[in-house]
């Protein structure tokens, strides 16, 4: 187990030296990763070191220990604090109760007492870490969540949000049997004569579980939005009329037992898991016919649309995967996704003209992605692009695949350039803002992010990546450069220069200046 990281803060050097040397950090399970001599320095240092524990004096110049704890509680919510205080600070220290303060120790600090405190703190940290990571607890939580996970899995499966190659593995994890040679989907619709509200769907699901027993297939009922859906898996060739009759029987029972008008639309059977969303779409279409054939019964879409066989379609899952690869993947991942989509056409065994709808939906997705990203159409689809491409423009599926790859890679490259340019512009805008506001004492990352309309967490990551400096370190550097310029080229007193560079406390300004340049402002001016 990694040792817990400790930041030591005290304005008295002999105390810091004594603690750092006398404590057997390794045997206690800790590692001293940094020291600071005031709260302001400690706050800036903690941003880089991310300590687990902060040992800090209460009374210090520039920023006291309680203010440091208050600020770090926001930026390091998991950190624990141990406060050092003089006897007169006892009442003052009680304010620490509302922060993550583990203990306070009266000065002078005794090494044995601090060791005892750290030992108890380690036990608490270990216990918390063990609780979070405890496999038995995680297993129990997982088992308690399984019913929800199963309902979510079924919903995502019907909506086409689970890739076929992932479905079997996830089903096995959730102890769901997806075996079978064919599947279909049923969608329930019901109107209640009373005010049972959300409990009604639970009642209907339970009613299906108790009364639906179709020979030759396994039916699973689950919540789907505000209603209930069925997933039927067949052991052999699907007996759709036998299933329809059995579902119809349950609809009749619901009228007698629940005083409920229950209508179930049933989709066409499909031979692969990837086609289940099409069966769900057929079930929804079947429900639309209840105004013609009557409610309170099972309605099989095959009776009403006998020619509506499953056709290879560019579905939501396809679009999500393609857009994800183009936006965030590598060129190789983009090619792999397009190759898989072309494979769907090949597997369907359709002639190229018959793939018109598939291509139209794919092409529309690329247009939507291009327009949504603010890219020029001609930069993606070529000079003279008129807004239309026909399936008849291609002689083979291979030619179509190559065209799609080229367009997707082009969008991928343009988005990559735009992200790089956008990040650069954002950082330059931030630098300009800092340059214009460095003299303000309340300049903060929150103020800057409100101006940029970005979250502080995202901006901090972006700024550090682009400049290799934290926001605080960069502001300090800008202020010091201006301070040095004023010392060289003006007769202003040091306290005025401190004010002009954003420091209310001239002593803290001198401290930061000396730390930055290795000499005091007076010596710098004299040199």
Q: What is the strand and helix layout of this fold?
A:
Blueprint: E1 4-9, H1 13-22, H2 25-28, E2 30-36, H3 39-49, E3 53-57, H4 65-75, E4 80-85, H5 90-93, E5 101-106, H6 111-133, H7 135-158, H8 164-173, E6 182-191, H9 199-211, E7 217-224, E8 227-234, H10 240-257, E9 261-266, H11 276-288, H12 290-293, E10 298-300, H13 301-304, H14 316-328, H15 331-348, H16 356-372, H17 377-381, H18 397-437, H19 445-452, H20 456-467, H21 471-489, H22 494-500, H23 506-517, H24 521-526
Parallel strand pairs: 1-2, 1-3, 3-4, 4-5, 9-10
Antiparallel strand pairs: 6-8, 6-9, 7-8
Q: What number is the mean pLDDT?
A: 87
Beginning-to-end CA distance, first to last residue: 51 Å
Based on secondary structure, the structural category is alpha/beta
Q: Roughly what percent helix?
A: 55-70%
Rg calculated over all Cα atoms = 34 Å
Number of helices: 24
Q: What's the count of strands? A: 10
Domain count: the total is 4
Q: Per DSSP, what share of the residues sits in E-state strands of 2 or more residues?
A: 5-15%
Q: Which spans have pLDDT < 50 for at least 5 consecutive residues?
A: none
Q: Name the shape in a single word.
A: elongated
CATH topology of the largest domain: Alpha-Beta Plaits
Task: Give a description of the structure.
By secondary structure, this protein is an alpha/beta fold. Helices cover 58% and strands 12% of the residues. The protein is built from 24 helices and ten strands. The chain has a five-stranded parallel sheet, sandwiched between helices. The protein has a five-stranded mixed sheet with strand order 7-8-6-9-10, with helices on both faces. It starts with a strand and ends with a helix.
């Amino acid at each position: 187990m990694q040792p817990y990281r400790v930041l030591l803060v005290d304005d008295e050097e002999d105390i810091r030296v004594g603690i750092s040397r006398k404590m057997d950090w390794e045997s206690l399970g800790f590692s001293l990763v940094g020291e600071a001599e005031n709260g302001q320095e400690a706050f800036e240092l903690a941003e880089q070191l991310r300590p687990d524990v902060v040992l800090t004096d209460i009374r210090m110049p520039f920023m006291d220990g309680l203010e440091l704890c208050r600020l770090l509680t926001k930026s390091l919510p998991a950190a624990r604090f141990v406060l050092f205080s003089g006897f007169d600070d006892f009442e003052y220290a009680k304010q620490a109760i509302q922060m993550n303060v583990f203990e306070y120790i009266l000065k002078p600090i005794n090494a044995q007492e601090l060791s005892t405190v750290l030992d108890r703190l380690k036990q608490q940290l270990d216990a918390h870490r063990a609780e979070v990571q405890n496999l038995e607890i995680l297993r129990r939580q997982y088992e308690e969540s399984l019913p929800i996970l199963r309902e979510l899995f079924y919903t995502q499966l019907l909506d086409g949000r689970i890739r076929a190659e992932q479905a079997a593995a996830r089903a096995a994890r959730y102890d769901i049997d997806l075996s079978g040679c064919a599947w279909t989907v049923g969608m329930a619709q019901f109107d209640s004569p009373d005010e049972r509200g959300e409990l009604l769907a639970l009642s209907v699901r339970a009613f299906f579980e108790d009364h639906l027993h179709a020979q030759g297939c396994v039916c699973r009922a689950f919540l789907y939005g505000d209603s209930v859906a069925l997933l039927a898996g067949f052991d052999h060739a699907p007996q759709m009329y036998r299933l329809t009759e059995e579902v119809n029987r349950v609809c009749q029972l619901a009228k007698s037992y629940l005083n409920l008008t229950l209508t179930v639309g049933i989709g066409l059977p499909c031979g692969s898991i990837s086609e289940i969303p099409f069966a769900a779409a057929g079930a929804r279409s079947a429900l639309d016919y209840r105004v013609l054939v009557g409610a309170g019964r099972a309605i099989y879409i095959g009776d009403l649309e006998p020619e509506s066989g499953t056709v290879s379609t560019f579905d939501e899952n396809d679009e999500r995967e393609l857009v994800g690869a183009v936006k965030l993947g590598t060129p190789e991942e983009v090619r792999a996704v397009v190759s898989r989509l072309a494979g769907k056409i090949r597997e369907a065994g359709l002639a190229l003209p018959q793939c018109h709808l598939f291509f139209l939906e794919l092409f529309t997705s690329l247009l939507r992605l291009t327009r949504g990203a603010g890219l020029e159409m001609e930069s993606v689809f070529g000079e003279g692009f008129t807004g239309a491409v026909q399936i008849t423009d291609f002689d083979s599926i291979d030619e179509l695949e190559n065209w799609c790859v080229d367009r997707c890679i082009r969008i991928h490259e343009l988005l990559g350039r735009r992200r790089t340019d956008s990040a650069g512009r954002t950082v330059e805008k931030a630098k300009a803002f800092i340059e214009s506001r460095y003299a303000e004492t309340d300049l903060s990352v929150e103020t800057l992010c409100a101006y940029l309309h970005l979250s502080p967490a995202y901006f901090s990551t972006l700024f550090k990546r682009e400049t290799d400096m934290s926001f605080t370190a960069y502001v300090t550097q800008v202020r010091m450069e201006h301070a040095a310029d004023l010392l060289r080229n003006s007769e202003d007193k040091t306290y005025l220069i401190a004010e002009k560079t954003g420091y209310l406390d001239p002593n803290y300004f001198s401290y930061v200046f000396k730390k930055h340049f290795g000499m005091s402002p007076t010596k710098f001016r004299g040199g």
